[in-house]
Every structure is written in C-alpha cells, then in structure tokens.
Design a protein that fits this description.
- The chain is built from 14 helices and 22 strands.
- By secondary structure, the chain is α/β, with parallel strands linked by helices.
- It has one domain: Alkaline Phosphatase, subunit A (3-Layer(aba) Sandwich).
- The protein has an 8-stranded mixed sheet, sandwiched between helices. A 4-stranded mixed sheet has the order 2-1-10-11. A two-stranded antiparallel ribbon has the order 4-5.
- β21 and β22 (about 445-450) form a beta hairpin.
- α2 packs across α9 and α12 runs parallel beside α13 (about 330-355).
- It starts with a strand and ends in a 14-residue tail after the last strand.
Length: about 450
C-alpha cells in the first residue's frame, strides 16, 4: 500500500521524520530511496535509458512440438496431430496453428535448445534464471532476485522517473505461478531476493491497485483517482512549505502523485481500434491454476513500456497439457493456440509500428517443455530437457533459429543454450554489462548477475 502519514502528527522537525513521511513499498521503489535512485539514474553512464524488457511467462510449460519445433517425420505419437507450415524465413517451419507468427517470423528469433531449467511448476525459474527453495539449490543470503528486481536495482527509474518494474500478470490459482518467489512445492519463499524490498514490482492486480491510503483519504481505486490527485496536490503544497524538498525528492514525490502510471493502466485511454485489434481473450480451465489468455494484459505491457517502465512481466495462458484436465493436447492446441498466435503477433506488431520494438526486448517462455512422446491419455508430460523460446526486439536479430533438437524434439543436438545465456542477452539489450556489474547479497558478498561466466547469445547480435 501507498501511505502518506497524517500531517497533523508528522511535524517534519528533523531529517529522519521528514524523509519517513512517505512510504511506497509495494510500488517497487520506496520513497525513502526513490530520490536516491533518481539521482543514480541521472548521473550513471553507459546504460540505455530508453530501453525496456517484457517477459511473457507461459505458466505450466508450453509444448515445443505444437509450436516452434514440429517434427513431421517422427511417428504420430511424437509428431502429434498437426502439420508444419512454412514461415517468412526460408527453411524454417512452425506448427500450422501459428500462421500469424509464422508470417512475421523474420521479426523475432527462436531458441529451440534451451537447457538449465528444472522440472518444477513455478515461475521463479523464469523470473530469476535459477532454481531455489530446496536443499542443494545454494541460494545466497536473501535469495535470488528476479530479472525486474535486478534491473530496478542496477538502473533505477528512467530519466522521467517512471517506476522501473511492473508485474502486469493476472492473479493465478497455483501460487508458484505468481511472481512472488513461491516455490513448488509451496513450502518456502524467495522474495524479494537480495536486492531488497525497494525493488519488488508494482503489481497491477495486487494490493496497490485495490487500496490506496493517502493522508486520511478513504480507500479508492486507481480508476477513480481524480479527487485523490486533487488532495495530493494540496498535500504536496504543505510538504513543500514545511520540508523544502530537494530536486530529486520533488521528482520522487511527483512520480508518486502523477497520473502517468494510472493513465498507462487505463485502457479507456487507448485507441478503440487498437483494443479491437488485440481481440478478445478466453478463460482457461480453473483446474490448471494458470492465467487467462488475455490480450489486454499484453496491451497493458505495451502501454507500460511506452510510459517508460524498464521491465514488465506478464503471464499468459495455462499450458500444463497432460490431458488430465479439459482434454487432449489436440483439443487444447486447437482451442488455445490460435488465441496465443493472434495476441502475441499483435503485440509484436504493435511494438514495431510504434517504434518500440527497437528499444524493447521480449522473451516468451515457460518453466519447461513437454515430453516428445504423447502419453496414453493424449497429452504431453513435463520435460525439462529442452523447450523453445521466442526472443525479439531491443537489438536482437530476427529470423534466426538457434539450436537444434534430436529427431524426437527431446534433447539438444546442436548449440544448447543455457537459461543464464538468455538472461545475459536480456541484460545486454538494456546496456547492462554482466561481466562487471555486481550486487551484494545480504551477507555483503558481491554477486555477479549471471553465473558461470555465461554470456549473451552472440548469434543474436552478430
């Protein structure tokens, strides 16, 4: 919750009480430290101030065979029910259920040989690039931070002072799918990691959106903020008179009282034609515990990076397709893949048409892939040996396929790509040098952002 203390009790007589009048922990950066972060963003060099990253998490683990790595020559129990189709890149084929992504495949690249993830139904691996929560995982003091928390810690807000990290994911029934550091099994918690509570994301479907408490004002919704902003304007005048805030404190206060973030979250301010183009989504079966297929959440992600948010995370769909829920993989593919195809292709086209794809890197993946062989019920089970990952934007070349799997689509036989290489790639698009930047864990030990000297995927930049 965002809280501003009652001016009748806070007299601002000294530096401590003056600086503690404002707290915004769940905004991802607290007001106590926000002005310091803004100073850091102002003076730091070498970073790409206008670059952003969007992580689209596919909870449950998507199938590689029915998406980006079809195996048409394999037996039916491996290749499945669908045929491959040609794409915009000669020699590259995707599943026939992805015609729109196939037609624009020259604008993104696919890694078919991802390794380094484990058989755990949790978002934590995708958000941090590491396993945790179990003995032997060797977590550092404080736990591993997510990509967005690291970006927030290293880069801070952008030049205009926009919050650096927003989680735009809908709430999900299976707790480890949510971006909260909950593990599978949900017995331990790694949150927010050693970057600290200043760098948790602003969660648009969490407590912040539901309930704002501002200087005695009754709780309000973000969508009904006009009277709140009027009251905040009066409060800011009182604070200015009593505190004499410095330039960076003024900027920090201005961010928290600005309508810029709320405007980005207000889809009524979007061109109706664009909203219509994103299309309608559909619910997923509640038994999956995943996310709905909501194109509007992807539209929110675009609006947020357009407003200056450095890192946006969003979840889309429910992909745990064992055939123990709702139907076979053939049924689930026919139902859900066309919506995925339309929503993701529209999102990428929208970024490109607005000139944002050059400055916004996008990664689309789940916590693992699916088994090469279809099971007796007609589904595919968990498979941590590899999966297909979509990467686009931010200087990443399009039209490439990195890595190759065996004839069954189960294991890499050419150019395995480690999950940490994907993180190094995303950091590079933001101008973050993974070979030099370190963050101290809670024991004061400096930690590199990437383990084992992993480097960005060089093929995507050459």
């Amino acid at each position: 919750m965002l809280k501003i203390t009652d001016s009748r009790r806070s007299q601002f007589h000294d530096r401590i009480t003056r600086r503690s009048f404002l707290r915004a922990g769940t905004l991802g950066v607290s007001a106590l430290h926000l002005s310091d972060l803004l100073q850091g963003a102002e003076v730091s060099g070498g970073v790409r101030r206008d670059h952003s990253v969007v992580m689209i998490y596919l909870p449950g683990g998507p199938t590689q065979h029915e998406t980006f790595d079809p195996k048409p020559r394999a037996p039916r129990e491996i290749r499945g029910s669908f045929q491959p189709i040609s794409t915009a890149v000669p020699g590259t084929q995707f599943c026939e259920l992805l015609p729109k992504l196939s037609a624009m495949s020259d604008r993104f690249s696919i890694v078919r040989s991802l390794v380094g993830l484990m058989n755990r139904h949790e978002s934590f691996q995708c958000y941090t690039g590491r396993p945790a929560g179990r003995p032997g995982d060797n977590e550092p003091a404080g736990g591993w931070p997510s990509l967005g928390s690291t970006v927030s810690s290293v880069l801070g807000p952008n030049r205009e002072g926009m919050i650096p990290y927003v989680d735009a994911a809908p709430r999900m029934g299976h707790m480890p799918y949510n971006n909260r550091g909950v593990h599978d099994p949900a017995s331990t918690l790694s949150w927010p990691g050693y970057t600290g509570s200043d760098h948790v994301p602003f969660t648009i479907e969490g407590d912040v959106k539901d309930d704002l408490i501002l200087n005695g004002i009754d709780s309000v919704r973000l969508q009904n903020r006009r009277s709140v902003l009027t009251s905040l304007g009066r409060l800011q005048q009182q604070v200015d008179a009593r505190c004499g805030l410095d330039a960076f404190q003024q900027q920090a206060f201005g961010l928290l009282t600005s309508s810029k973030l709320a405007d980005a979250l207000d889809l009524e301010k979007e061109d109706p034609a664009v909203v219509l183009r994103y299309g309608e989504g559909q619910a997923t079966d509640p038994s999956f515990g995943g996310a709905p297929q909501s194109p509007k959440h992807l539209l929110l992600a675009r609006r947020l990076v357009e407003a200056g948010v450095r890192c946006v995370t969003v979840a889309f769909g429910a992909w745990d397709w064992h055939a123990n829920r709702e139907g076979t993989i053939e049924y689930l593919s026919r139902k859900y893949l066309p919506v995925y195809d339309h929503a993701l292709s529209t999102f990428l086209q929208d970024l490109e048409q607005r000139g944002l794809l050059e400055t916004t890197s996008v990664v689309v993946w789940g916590e693992f892939g699916r088994t090469p062989r279809i099971n007796a019920k007609g589904g595919r089970d968990h498979w941590a040996e590899t999966q297909s990952v979509l990467l686009a934007g931010g200087g990443i070349h399009g039209g490439m396929v990195i890595g190759q799997t065996d004839k069954e689509g189960g294991r890499p036989v050419e150019r395995p790509v480690h999950v940490q290489e994907v993180f190094a790639t995303l950091y590079r698009t933001l101008g973050i040098d993974v070979n030099n930047i370190k963050i101290n864990d809670l024991n004061g030990r400096p930690r590199y952002l990437i383990d084992e000297n992993r480097q960005p995927i060089s093929e995507l930049f050459s």
